[in-house]
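Throughout our pipeline, every protein is held as a single compact record rather than as scattered files. Nothing more is needed to write down the fold, since each code stands for a local backbone conformation. The record that follows is passed on verbatim for readers who wish to inspect the format.
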Amino acid sequence: QVQLVESGGGSVQAGGSLRLSCAASEPTYSIYCMAWFRQAPGKEREGIAAVYLGGGPTYYSDSVKGRFTISQDNAKNILYLQMNSLKPEDTAMYYCAVVRCSNLGEGREMVPRYNNWGQGTQVTVSS
């Protein structure tokens, strides 16, 4: 089972930017789809961005669409999440995960394939 390590989080002011990274323990070409999730205290974990690693379509939740961009560097086995125009409501622990490609689609829930969540990386946005 692939091991994932998130990094790049931090504390920023509203309107700022951050780029999160997710390093995989094996070549990402062996994995078709991945996504970024986040969870704030007292709230459910939600999928916010997903991508077909082979260069297919990307999907975003309404809350981040237009502000976040998911991408990858397959040669380095790294998944990225560029976050711009950050808002206080973006404050959460962010995780990356392998997801089922068959569940991806506009407005559809992103479903993790495994339950091997890593440590995540904390993002805190102040007003």
About this structure: The first strand starts at residue 4 and ends at 7.
